[in-house]
Amino acid sequence: MVQTIANNFISGIILLIERPLRKGDYVTIGTAYEGEVIDIGIRSLTIQAWNYQEIIVPNSEVISNAFTNWTYSDNIMRMTLYVRTGYEDDPARTLTILSTVLADIPEILADPEPNLLLWEFADSWMVFRVDYYLDIMQYSRVVLMTRSRIWLKIWQALKKAGINIAYPRQDTHLKTVPPILTNTAGETDT
User: Fold this and answer.
1) Are 62 and 7 in contact, with CB atoms under 8 Å apart?
2) Which of 77, 148, 186, 188 lies most in the core, judged by the most C-beta atoms within 10 Å?
3) Are 182 and 188 within 8 A, CB to CB?
């Protein structure tokens, strides 16, 4: 118990001196915590998650895990989506539609501009990578809603254009096998 308290205290001093995190920063700590830093204390860090849940993280856990400070040097956060379409669809047309969808969403920044790439030729579909950027300080509480709205608008635009979003599928081919030949004595010919 005393060792844990001492470890958290020393980790808190490191956080306060080095300042890799500041109040108001948006962070991901390990794979468990994500949100806005609302308090940095000697013993723990308090994060407010996207759903307004406040999470108290011991400072030793912050120091011992990899973390991403999304707002360390600026407020811009890149988000990435992957869209799959069938090989029967024109990839240039798909990229144009995706570009139009992103341009119609006010939360998406024009600078840096979104990246739209034909990313991969997979077994049954083409994969498009869509990178877009948000001002996390301006739209912090709507990041997930913006992502959902983008997916909905992509689906609507592709459907309207007659382009199907690809999904895993299996084709089964049945072949008929010729019957086994038999002779008149009832024995099987080989």
Assistant:
1) no
2) 77
3) yes
Question: How far from chain centre, in Å, is Cα 94?
Answer: 20
Cα angle for residues 108, 113, 116 (degrees, 5° grid) = 95
Is 48 within the bounds of a domain? yes
Question: Phi and psi at residue 60, in whole multiples of 5°?
Answer: -65, -35
Whether residue 83 sits in one domain with residue 137: yes
Q: Which residue has the tokens 């406040």?
A: 54
Task: List, in sequence order, every residue forming a beta bridge with 138; answer none if it has no partner.
Answer: none
d(CA 144, CA 58): 27
Nearest to 7 by CA among 43, 53, 54: 43
The total number of structural domains that make up the chain: 2
Task: State in Å, rounded, how far the first CA of the chain is from the last one.
Answer: 81
Query: Does some domain include residue 10?
Result: yes
Is the full-model pTM beyond 0.85? no
Percent helix, percent strand, percent coil in the chain, to nearest 5: 30, 30, 40
Domain region containing 61 = 2-69
pLDDT tens, residue order, the chain (190 aa) = 778 777 767 777 777 777 788 898 889 898 888 888 999 988 889 999 888 899 999 988 888 888 889 888 888 888 899 999 999 999 999 999 999 999 999 999 999 999 999 999 998 899 999 999 988 777 666 677 788 899 999 999 999 999 989 887 767 777 777 777 666 666 655 5
The tokens describing 38, both together, are 């609302």
